[in-house]
Design goal:
Structural class: alpha+beta
Largest sheet: 2 strands, antiparallel
Number of domains: 1
Shape: flat
Helix content: 40-55%
Strand order of the largest sheet: 1-2
Order of helices and strands: EEEHHHEHHH
Number of strands: 4
Length: 128
C-alpha cells in the first residue's frame, strides 16, 4: 500500500509531502482479547498466485516481515460484518453514536486501542 502524508512546515511556509510504503497483514498481530475475538469472527483465506510470489521474491519482498510487522487492516466487507456484530448496540442506533459506558469490555478495549494507535500515528513526526 502506498500512502502520502502531508504536513504544514512553518519554517518554509509550505507543506512537506512524504511518500512511504506500508505492508499490510491479514493477521491480527495484537495478543489482546480483542484481537483473538476478531480472529475468531473473521475467517480469512489468504491466497497468492505463483507469478505474484515470483515477482515479490525477485524484488526481495519478505512475506514473513509483512505478516509479522505489517499494518493490520479490515476490508469494507469485514468492517460492515464487524459493525453488525459488535458495534450495533440497541441504544446507539437512534443517535448514530456509540456510548462506551454501555459496551462490553472487548468493545471498550478495541476502541481504546484504535484511538491510541491513531493518536500515535498522528503525533509521529518521523513516519516510516
Amino acid at each position: 500500500m502506498l500512502r502520502t502524508r502531508t504536513r504544514a512546515d512553518a519554517t518554509s511556509v509550505g507543506y512537506n509531502a512524504r511518500t512511504f510504503n506500508c505492508a499490510l497483514t491479514p493477521l491480527f498481530i495484537n495478543t489482546s482479547s480483542v484481537a483473538n475475538l476478531l480472529a475468531k469472527t473473521l475467517d480469512r483465506t489468504v491466497t497468492f498466485s505463483y507469478k505474484a510470489l515470483l515477482f515479490l521474491q525477485c524484488h526481495s519482498f519478505s512475506l514473513q516481515d509483512a505478516f509479522a510487522h505489517g499494518v493490520p487492516y479490515l476490508s469494507r466487507q469485514e468492517n460492515e460484518q464487524l459493525k453488525e456484530r459488535f458495534l450495533q448496540h440497541p441504544n446507539s442506533r437512534a443517535t448514530g453514536r456509540l456510548d462506551m459506558n454501555t459496551q462490553d469490555i472487548e468493545t471498550r478495549e478495541f476502541c481504546a486501542s484504535v484511538r491510541n494507535q491513531i493518536g500515535s500515528w498522528l503525533s509521529d513526526t518521523n513516519p516510516v
